[in-house]
């Protein structure tokens, strides 16, 4: 919206507002403007400015749903006052990720007697507090909670269990082996499970996947329509999820239409899971499917599963060939207009007719991709990363040219080697260093054009005629773009020591550099951008173009650009940041990165920045510059730096930031630690899951989950 909140509140004169008094706007327009204001500000501040706003701020359209999940300025007192003022008017309350609020804050939710949906993921909730709260929420139908060590289902009262028996949607994040509240939810239709159980305790003891005493109650799945499980790395998570699946294998719900299990690494199929899949093939028709790679590889499962109107498929890291994809999933190229999200990340043979004798680096079969594009013409989210998708020399069949037909795409992930022009079709654009022609025995005067004429214009024409430039021009409504090297791996993996060596980039990716990055600047509506392992970045000039043109950019992640021995794009990055007024999340991963005064001065122009993460092997930082940056950027609530500084220097800086800014920023989370230190994994486990999952750990996020999986 065009007017600032200050203008609304102050009621500036008509002359100052160009003859328009904001208070003369219709209620409908003002309500739309106020919908962008955080609920706490509306009720506790804006409402007290004038009578008209006092009435509008309590309109049902603004109080029906209260979102606190990214209101980093909210504290216990504000939540208490908010619940006192409008608690009875709230039907949906989202407090996900409010890790900074004390557990006693949850007590005030009991004032929301009419709650239908409640999200407390990431909040500190004990068994007793949960019992007391749920006992008063008789209308609750949707619930999201964490199950932490010490959770005891026997402490749940009968009134609490009565409320849980009416809940139809449950999202449960497990940090300890437990069924949580699942056995109490006898009317479940949607169950989302996130397994974040570590294999070792803080004391170093190995943990078991066996459930605690008193946790043997059987879950009730008879009404289940959606089952989703996401596992963090570790064998304990696999053991526990098998206990949840055991009940499903006995009797598959007739109404099941979405079955999704996201498991990293190897998750072997067992007799019970095979029985479950066989039962699903006989009894249900699915709309969404995701399975561990070991359950699909080498099996004929996909040939027997039946689909209704599928909207989401994920075959991430499977050895599924393109021939099987077309025959068994897309039914030989039949109409699949219902499919809106497709994840083929790490599916190295998905665009080849067969995988038996094929090398991962061989050219793709463009006819398979064409069948995919024609059949799934309404795709909005497509992930083809973590694979070598090399186009052949045949004209008109380049991967970028075929993808340009998907006009509805909102998010796209591609490997770097897939966007390069085939050498036989388009020559590599000249670099700045060879724009001045070289001649023998003749001096060339600077500024005088010599033969050939208009060489710079020819270079621009070649750049703009590239297949990737054309693709970016055709996807004008794209909001999320990821260009990731097929062999890229982050220096900071989950639950493991930092990686010291990285694999070299694909040979075809060697030509991808500044001109391709500049092509991204055509995406006017771009909100999230990830660039990783682009080896030919020289100056980073394309970043400046993105900063100037992509004014809605909110999330930026850059990793291993250009040469690894130096950061050649630093100057361009600083110029880019000066234009990123809407940037909220910035993640940088680059060896030898120097986070000095000039960098933080440029970063201070990003007035909306909330989260910063820097991962740099042998990287350095200036403590004074960091402190000055934190003082200037008042919205920053997360500062994670994993670099090459000493443990003492890191601890001193971390303590200084916390001591100086924690009081005014209740959600402040600071982690500054040596990247290669042996205790890194212990430090990582204390990072709030919201930050860890959304920014600190590198991963491809396009089509990671079905759209609108949770509200």
TrEMBL record:
Q: Which CDD domains match?
A: F-box_FBXL18 (cd22128)
Ranges for domain F-box: 19-66
- Enumerate the Gene Ontology biological process terms: SCF-dependent proteasomal ubiquitin-dependent protein catabolic process
* InterPro entries listed in its UniProt record: F-box-like_dom_sf (IPR036047), F-box_dom (IPR001810), FBXL18_F-box (IPR047948), FBXL18_LRR (IPR045627), LRR_dom_sf (IPR032675)
Q: What cellular component terms from Gene Ontology apply here? A: SCF ubiquitin ligase complex
Query: What sections of the sequence does the record tag as coiled-coil?
Result: none
Q: Which PANTHER family does the record associate with it?
A: F-BOX AND LEUCINE-RICH REPEAT PROTEIN 18, F-BOX/TPR REPEAT PROTEIN POF3
Q: What name does this protein carry? A: FXL18 protein
Which organism is this entry from?
Ramphastos sulfuratus
């Amino acid at each position: 919206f065009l007017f600032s909140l200050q203008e609304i509140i102050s009621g500036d004169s008509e002359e100052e507002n160009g003859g328009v008094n904001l208070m003369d706007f219709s209620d409908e327009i003002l309500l739309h403007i106020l919908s962008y204001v955080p609920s706490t500000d509306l009720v506790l501040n804006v409402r007290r400015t004038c009578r008209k706003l006092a009435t509008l701020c309590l309109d049902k359209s603004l109080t029906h749903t209260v979102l606190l999940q990214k209101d980093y300025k909210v504290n216990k007192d504000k939540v208490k006052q908010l619940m006192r003022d409008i608690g009875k008017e709230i039907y949906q309350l989202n407090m996900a990720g409010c890790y900074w609020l004390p557990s006693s804050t949850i007590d005030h939710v009991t004032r929301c007697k009419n709650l239908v949906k409640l999200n407390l993921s990431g909040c500190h909730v004990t068994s007793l507090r949960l019992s007391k709260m749920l006992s008063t929420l008789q209308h609750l139908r949707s619930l999201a909670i964490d199950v932490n060590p010490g959770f005891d289902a026997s402490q749940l009262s009968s009134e609490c269990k009565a409320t849980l028996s009416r809940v139809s949607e449950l999202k449960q994040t497990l940090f300890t082996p437990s069924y949580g509240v699942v056995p109490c939810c006898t009317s479940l239709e949607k169950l989302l499970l996130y397994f974040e159980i570590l294999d070792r305790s803080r004391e170093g003891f190995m943990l078991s996947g066996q459930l605690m005493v008193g946790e043997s109650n059987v879950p009730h799945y008879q009404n289940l329509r959606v089952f989703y499980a996401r596992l963090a790395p570790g064998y304990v998570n696999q053991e526990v999820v098998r206990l949840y699946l055991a009940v499903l294998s006995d009797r598959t719900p007739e109404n099941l239409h979405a079955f999704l299990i996201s498991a990293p690494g190897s998750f072997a199929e067992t007799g019970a899971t095979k029985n479950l899949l066989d039962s699903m093939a006989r009894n249900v028709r699915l709309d969404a499917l995701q399975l561990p790679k070991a359950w699909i590889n080498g099996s004929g499962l996909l040939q027997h599963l039946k689909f209704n109107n599928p909207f989401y498929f994920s075959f991430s890291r499977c050895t599924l060939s393109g021939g099987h994809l077309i025959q068994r999933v897309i039914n030989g190229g039949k109409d699949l207009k219902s499919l809106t999200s497709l994840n083929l990340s790490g599916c190295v043979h998905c665009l080849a007719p067969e995988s038996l004798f094929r090398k991962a680096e061989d050219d793709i079969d463009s006819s398979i991709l064409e069948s995919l594009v024609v059949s799934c013409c309404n795709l909005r989210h497509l992930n083809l990363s973590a694979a070598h998708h090399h186009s052949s020399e045949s004209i008109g069949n380049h991967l970028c040219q075929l993808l340009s037909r998907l006009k509805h795409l909102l998010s796209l992930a591609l490997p770097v080697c897939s966007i390069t022009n085939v050498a036989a079709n388009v020559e590599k654009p000249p670099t700045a260093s060879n724009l001045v022609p070289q001649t023998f025995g003749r001096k060339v005067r600077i500024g005088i054009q010599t033969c050939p004429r208009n060489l710079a214009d020819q270079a621009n024409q070649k750049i703009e005629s590239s297949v990737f430039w054309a693709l970016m021009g055709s996807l004008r409504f794209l909001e999320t773009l990821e260009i990731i090297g097929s062999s890229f791996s982050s220096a900071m993996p989950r639950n493991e020591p930092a990686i010291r060596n990285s694999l070299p980039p694909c040979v075809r990716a060697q030509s991808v550099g500044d001109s391709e990055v500049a092509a991204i600047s055509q995406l006017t509506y771009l909100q999230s951008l990830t660039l990783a392992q682009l080896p030919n970045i020289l100056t980073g000039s394309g970043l400046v173009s993105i900063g100037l043109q992509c004014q809605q950019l909110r999330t930026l992640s850059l990793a291993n650009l250009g040469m690894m021995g130096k950061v050649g794009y630093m100057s361009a990055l600083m110029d880019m940041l000066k234009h990123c007024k809407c940037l909220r999340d910035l993640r940088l991963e680059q060896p030898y990165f120097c986070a000095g005064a000039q960098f933080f001065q440029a970063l201070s122009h990003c007035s909306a920045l909330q989260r910063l993460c820097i991962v740099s092997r042998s990287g350095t930082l200036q403590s004074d510059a960091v402190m000055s940056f934190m003082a200037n950027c008042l919205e920053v609530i997360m500062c994670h730096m994993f670099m090459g500084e000493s443990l003492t220097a890191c601890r001193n800086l971390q303590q200084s930031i916390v001591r100086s800014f924690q009081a005014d920023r209740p959600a402040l989370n600071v982690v500054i630690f040596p990247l290669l230190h042996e205790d890194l994994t212990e430090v990582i486990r204390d990072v709030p899951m919201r930050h860890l999952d959304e920014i600190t750990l590198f991963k491809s996020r396009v089509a990671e989950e079905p759209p609108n999986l949770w509200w």
